[in-house]
Amino acid sequence: MSKAHTTAVKSFNLNHSTYDKYRLSFSKELTKKFLVDLKLASESEYHTDKKILELAAGTGKFTRNLVEFGWGENLVAVDPSSGMLTTLKKNFPSIKTYEGSSYELPLPDSSFDSVVIAQGWHWFSDRASLKELYRVLKPNGTLGMIWNFDVARKESLVDTLSPELLQKGKELAASLPNSQEKPYLLSHAILGDTWAAKTGDLAYGYDVNVPQYRHGNWRNVLSEHNDYFTSIEKETFLLHDAAIKREDIYLYWETRSYITALSQNEKDKLKVKLNEALDKYVTDDDKVLINGEEYLHRIIGAHAITLTSKKQ
Ligand SMILES: C[S@@+](CC[C@H](N)C(=O)[O-])C[C@H]1O[C@@H](n2cnc3c(N)ncnc32)[C@H](O)[C@@H]1O
């Protein structure tokens, strides 16, 4: 049996409190569309009688959306990191949690209508995981993965989802080949010499040896024929505005497992380089005031995919 990736489990056991504070929340707009695609909602209501397994639930960043949409006793959260689950239980004391991984779930056969995975599938995107997810899903159960990803751009649009940007994102997504490079191309197509681009490049210099969403390899096993799931049926991209305080930018990147795993000396070097890039690239147009406090504007991309179990 395979085991959960050690960098993931070690780092997330250490950083769960900062992770919970500095990582991004998930777009409610995309979550709603995602739940409709998973047959867990219609346009007018959420089917909270459907049983959901949230795998790789972490501290509950996506769980929050499910709870706000009404899930409670029909939601089960699983993660191999006891640290992450400690924070999840503090955030959502009434949600059932289990320590477990995609390779061995402490759950009965054919017991869930849907499995959802937020910001996690890239850690275990293999056939053994698909087989285990197939086992716990009911016949024709659905499987969905959702991610946030960093995007940068020059124009400054604040506060609300901008229709122009959304349109631009949709057009770009439609014009790109449907390949594993798509999210990467999408973000780089609107990338400039922005603070977000430059600081992201510095942090990404460290992520080469760990499975990451932006590398796109998570798509491979889903594209090969297998006995467990259909190929990807629905795929949605969304871009939305967000803001971060300048002093939180290092902490945001430090929640990445591959940055958590660096020595203190290397972390300090990265901090200096990030500050140099911020001094050089932040412009007045990037600055926004929210409740009297200064933030830097940035764009976040969100991406969701859904598949259906072949179990009859
Ligand atoms: C980036 S965090 C995402 C957490 C949370 N879903 C969120 O969106 O913030 C990735 C999570 O995947 C979990 N993970 C790593 N390998 C796993 C596996 N094989 N099966 C299930 N979860 C795994 C980690 O422990 C970690 O909590």
Automatic annotation (TrEMBL):
One of the record's GO molecular function terms: S-adenosylmethionine-dependent methyltransferase activity
Q: Which terms are listed as keywords in the entry?
A: Methyltransferase, Transferase
Q: Which GO terms describe its biological process?
A: methylation
Keyword match Transmembrane helix: no
Q: Does the keyword Methyltransferase apply?
A: yes
* UniProt xrefs under Pfam families: Methyltransf_11
Methyltransferase type domain segment(s): 53-143
PANTHER family in UniProt:
METHYLTRANSF_11 DOMAIN-CONTAINING PROTEIN, METHYLTRANSFERASE TYPE 11 DOMAIN-CONTAINING PROTEIN
Q: What family does the entry list?
A: Belongs to the methyltransferase superfamily.
**Name of the protein in its database record:** Methyltransferase type 11 domain-containing protein
What is the organism of origin for this protein? Hyphopichia burtonii NRRL Y-1933
High-level lineage = Eukaryota, Fungi, Dikarya, Ascomycota, Saccharomycotina
